[in-house]
Amino acid sequence: MQPIIQIQGVGKTYASGFTALKSVHLDIQRGEIFALLGPNGAGKTTLISIICGLVNASSGRVLADGVDIVDDYRQARRLIGLVPQELTTDAFESVWDTVSFSRGLFGKPADPAYIEKILRQLSLWDKRHSKMLALSGGMKRRVMIAKALSHEPRILFLDEPTAGVDVELRRDMWEMVRGLRDNGVTVILTTHYIEEAEEMADRIGVISRGELILVEEKDTLMQQLGQKQLHLILQTPLATLPEALGQYNLSLSEDGGRLTYTFDAHQETSGIAELLRVLSTEGIDLKDLQSQQSSLEEIFVSLVHQPEQNQ
Amino acid sequence: MNLNGIRAIYLFEMNRTRRTLMQSVISPVLSTSLYFIVFGTAIGSRMGEIDGISYGAFIIPGLLMLSLLSESISNASFGIFFPKFSGTIYEVLSAPVSPFEIVAGYVGAAATKSLIIGALILLTARVFVDYSIAHPVWMLAFLLLTALTFSLFGFIIGVWANDFQQLQVIPLMVITPLTFLGGAFYSINMLPEPWHTLTLFNPVVYLINGFRWAFYGVADVHMGLSLGMTLLFLLICLTAVWWIFRTGYRIKP
C-alpha cells in the first residue's frame, strides 16, 4: 500500500545559512503512530513545518496520500491537521468560535454536531463559551487538538503534544491518540519524552542535526539495539575481579557484592552460560540474579551521541 | 475556491470589530465629528467659501479620506500583524487557502470596516454641516477603491512590521502628514509656488480631489487623473502582495 506521507530528499537551509535539514527521506505508513525523536534543534519542527506548509523546503518534495504538498496544496492540506508546539490561540475568542473558525478555514461547511462531538471527546464541552485566556495550559492544549481535528483530517501532526502537561492529562492524550489511530488517522508526533514514544509509537525515527539517523519498528529497535544487563548478586563480596573473568564485559560494584554483565541482546549467544560456568569454577557463589533491558532513552542517547564521538 | 475559508477569516475579523466596537468604530467617528464641530461649525462659519463651497462642506471629502486611509491601514495591518505576532498565523498558512483567499478575507474585512466608518462619518457630518453629493455613484466608487487600496496597503505594512512601533510608523509619520498637506483643509490652488508644484507629488492630493469632485463637481486636479492615480496605487499594492506570497516575505521562511 502507498505510504500516506512520502518525504523525498527534503532539505532546508534558512536565509541565515543555518542548515536545519539535510536531505531527509522517510515514508509514513497509513494508520500508524510514528514518533520522531530528537534533541532540541535537531530539525523535528522544521520537518513538520515543511509538510504542513509553514516553511518552504530548500530541496526535495513531500507527497501526502500521493499528492504533492506544493503543487496540489489544497488537496494535501485538507488531509492534514497540525497541533503546534506553542499554545498559540486568540486569547479573546471563545472555545466554540475558535474551533469553528478552524473548520471553516479548512473549507468545511459548518457542522455544529461534529464540533460538539470533538469538544465532548476532549472534555471541553463545558468550556465551550469560555474565552481562551480563561483556560489552563492543559485545556488550551486540548483546544489546539480540537482545532486540528475540526476538519476531520486523515493525518495528524502533534508537535511535542505533552510538553508542559501534567501526568494525568498526558495519559488522557495518549488514550485519545490511540483512539484516533483506531479510527484510521495516521499520527506523527515529535517528542523528546522517550517515555511517550515508548508508550505509544508503532515506529520510531531518530533525527539528529538535520539527519534522520534511524527509522525502525519500536519493538525491533528495542530488541535489536537494546543492551541487556545481568546483575549477579554474590554470596560473598569480592575485593577485586578475578583474572579468569577479565575477558567478560563485567563490572564490580563498589561494595564488591554485585557483578554486572553487559551484553548485546541481538547476539546469538549471550555468553551467560559460559560466564556462570567460570563463576562456578572460580568458586564464586551467587545469591540472586536480575536481568535488565536498556530503555529507549538509553538507545536514543547512544544514537545521538554517536556522531559526536566519531568526530 | 475555498469560500468557507474566506468566510471564516472575514467573520473572524468582523467579530474582532464587534468585540472592540468602541475602539474600532465609535472612536474614529467621534474624533472626525470633532473636526466637523471645530472647523466646520465653529471656525468654518467665520471663513469664506472655497470654489463656491462653504468651508464646513469643503473639508468633508478630505476628512472622510483621512479617516478612510487611516482606518483602512490600521484595520488591515493589525488584522495580519497580530496573528503573525501571536503565532496563530500557522493555522492560515497550513490551511487549504490560496494567497488570494487569505487577502480577500483580511482585506475584505478591513475594507468593510472602513466603509462602515465612512458611512457613519457621512451621516454624522450631516448633523453639523449641510452638504450635497453631485456624483453619488462616483463617490461610492472612490470610497470603495480607496478603502480597498489602503486596506491592501495596510496588509503589506502588517506583513512588513516586526513590532508594534513599526506598525504605527507609516500611518502616523507618512499617511497623516500627507493627508493634512494634501489639501484636506484647503485648496492646493491657494498655495504659492514652489509649494503648489511640490504638493502635486503628494499622492493623497489625487485621492482627496477625486473625492471632492464626486461631492461637489469641482476639484484642484482633473477627476480622470485622480482615478488614474488611485488605480495606479491599487496596482502597486496588488503587485507587492503578489510578491509577498511568491517569496514568503516575513510570513513563511
pLDDT under 50 segments of chain A (min length 5)? none
Domain count of chain B: the total is 1
Q: Approximately how much beta-strand content do the residues of chain B carry?
A: under 5%
CATH architecture of the largest domain in chain A: 3-Layer(aba) Sandwich
Q: Strand share of the residues of chain A?
A: 25-35%
Assigned CATH class of the largest domain in chain A:
Alpha Beta
Mean pLDDT of chain B: 88
Taken from the alpha-carbon principal axes, the silhouette of chain B is globular
How helix-rich are the residues of chain A, as a percent range? 25-40%
Count of beta strands of chain A: 14
Number of helices, counting only DSSP H or I runs of 4 residues or more of chain A: 10
Description:
- The complex is a heterodimer of chains A (311) and B (253).
- Chain A is 34% helix and 28% strand.
- Chain A is an alpha/beta fold and 311 residues long.
- Chain A has 2 domains: 147 residues, P-loop containing nucleotide triphosphate hydrolases (Rossmann fold, 3-Layer(aba) Sandwich), CATH 3.40.50; 78 residues, Alpha-Beta Plaits, CATH 3.30.70.
- In chain A, the strands form 3 sheets. In chain A, strands 6-7-8-3-9-10 form a 6-stranded mixed beta sheet, with helices on both faces. A 4-stranded antiparallel beta sheet of chain A has the order 2-1-4-5, with helices on one face. A 4-stranded antiparallel beta sheet of chain A has the order 12-13-11-14.
- In chain A, helix 3 runs parallel beside helix 5.
- The two termini of chain A are 40 Å apart.
- Chain B is mostly helical and 253 residues long.
- Chain B has one domain.
- Chain B has 10 helices and no strands.
- The chains are: A alpha/beta (311), B mainly alpha (253).
- Chains A and B meet through helix 2 and helix 3 of A and helix 1 and helix 4 of B.
- Chain B: It is found in: Cell inner membrane; Membrane.
- Chain B: It comes from Marinobacterium marinum.
- Chain B: One of its GO terms (molecular function) is ABC-type transporter activity.
- Chain B: Belongs to the ABC-2 integral membrane protein family.
